[in-house]
Design goal:
This is Glucose-6-phosphate/phosphate translocator 2. There is one protein chain. The chain is about 70% helix and about 0% strand. The protein contains 14 helices and no strands. The protein has helices spanning about 15-25, 30-35, 75-125, 130-150, 160-185, 190-195, 200-210, 215-235, 240-265, 270-295, 295-310, 315-335, 340-365, 370-400. It is globular, with a radius of gyration of 40 Å.
């Protein structure tokens, strides 16, 4: 074929039927895919005519453009996608740690404040049965108001729940009153030193009454607990047998409370906060008639006049504070059980006793001999060791691991 295309022509105009023909065959998008772009120069006046034949020497420019698909590496994509997930998990873990820290700090602070005001009330008004009743009454009233106003979601309970809760409430009532009686007779620090021996009662009751057996390390961890409590009791300057026996009875009662709670409350869908609220209400109903029978309104009225004459209106604030803070610190401790493991809770309970003992000695200027402080330290250290050994033995029995490998802790 003969070509009539001039080499100097950079532009072209297409006239007439050729324009219509191209529009019918190819859309603008299709034309752009098959034809290379033309450089248009507005100054040129040359024309590209269809009246003469056109010779095409190379058709490679008309071949379809092959679009190479980029390869997507799945591993890189998954890594990029996993980074936000890992960051969210890290943030969630950090938030959980902060939440547990707030629980512990609040628990310890409320417990310290309660013990201080409770001791002040008992020094001015030595009626532990009424003081214990007021503590339970205040907590029960607070929770009933919270349920009525929907500040807290009321629990879904039935008659079977309250039947199961009854032995737990009896043990809780005895333990609460016995601890209050103890603090009315001896120093707060001494009561808590004796109460740190509760693990020993737990093992002994489980062994001889329930027939449970424990590994040798658990029994060995009881030696410093018993020895430390004995040393602290012998060297206590203001020793009182009623105060000592009250703390011991409190330990025994709380052990039975825990046993009844574990056996009877399995499968009960009640939160820790509501569980303690129900426990307080039932304990109040149990305690009130006994408090009236043991002390009675006449002694309460005479003691109130004496306290008001010696302390003044501030005494009413002391009673209200010890009642409110008693419920709050117990409520926070039960709420924390929903968030942390039993081992973490035991460690927190040990640290709580240390904070209470130290703060009460400082505030009430309790005289402490070095040998007495040594006994307290040994008992508290034994409690800490017991919680560690008991948990590790539990892991060993459950998972059969002894070393820090394959996710095992012991």
């Amino acid at each position: 074929m003969i070509s009539s295309i001039k080499a100097t022509v950079p532009t072209a105009t297409i006239n007439g039927s050729d324009s219509i023909f191209r529009k019918r065959l190819l859309s603008p998008t299709q034309r752009s895919l098959f034809l290379p772009p033309l450089q248009v120069d507005s100054s040129s006046k040359s024309e590209f005519s269809l009246s003469r034949p056109l010779h095409i020497s190379n058709v490679s420019c008309f071949e379809p453009v092959r679009v190479q698909k980029s390869l997507i590496k799945c591993k890189a994509y998954e890594a990029e996608q996993s980074q936000p997930i890992e960051r969210e998990e890290a943030k969630s873990a950090a938030a959980q740690k902060v939440k547990i820290g707030i629980y512990f700090a609040t628990w310890w602070a409320l417990n310290v404040v309660f013990n201080i005001y409770n001791k002040k009330v008992l020094n001015a008004y030595p009626y532990p049965w009424l003081t214990s009743t007021l503590s339970l009454a205040c907590g029960s009233l607070m929770m009933l108001i919270s349920w009525a106003t929907r500040i807290a979601e009321p629990p879904n309970t039935d008659l079977e729940f309250w039947k199961t809760l009854f032995p737990v409430a009896v043990a809780h009532t005895i333990g609460h009153v016995a601890a209050t009686v103890s603090m009315s007779k001896v120093a707060v620090s001494f009561t808590h030193i004796i109460k740190s021996g509760e693990p020993a009662f737990s093992v002994l009751v489980s062994r001889f009454l329930l027939g449970e057996t424990f590994p040798l390390p658990v029994y060995m961890s009881l030696v410093p607990i018993i020895g430390g409590c004995a040393l602290a009791a012998v060297t206590e300057l203001n020793f009182n047998m009623i105060g000592f026996m009250g703390a011991m009875i409190s330990n025994l009662a709380f052990v039975f409370r825990n046993i009844f709670s574990k056996k009877g409350m399995k499968g009960k869908s009640v939160s820790g906060m509501n569980y303690y609220a129900c426990l307080s209400i039932l304990s109040l109903l149990i305690l009130t008639p006994f408090a009236i029978a043991v002390e009675g309104p006449q002694l309460w009225a005479a003691g109130y006049k004496t306290a008001m004459s010696q302390i003044g209106p501030q005494f009413i604030w002391w009673v209200a504070a010890q009642s409110i803070f008693y419920h709050l610190y117990n409520q926070v401790s039960y709420m924390s059980l929903d968030e942390i493991s039993p081992l973490t809770f035991s460690i927190g309970n040990t640290m709580k006793r240390i904070s209470v003992i130290v703060s009460s000695i400082i505030i009430f200027h309790t005289p402490v001999q070095p040998i007495n402080a040594l006994g307290a330290a040994i008992a508290i250290l034994g409690t800490f060791l017991y919680s560690q050994v008991n948990y590790l033995c539990f892991l060993h029995l459950k998972y059969g691991c002894l070393y820090l490998t394959d996710g095992c802790m012991f």
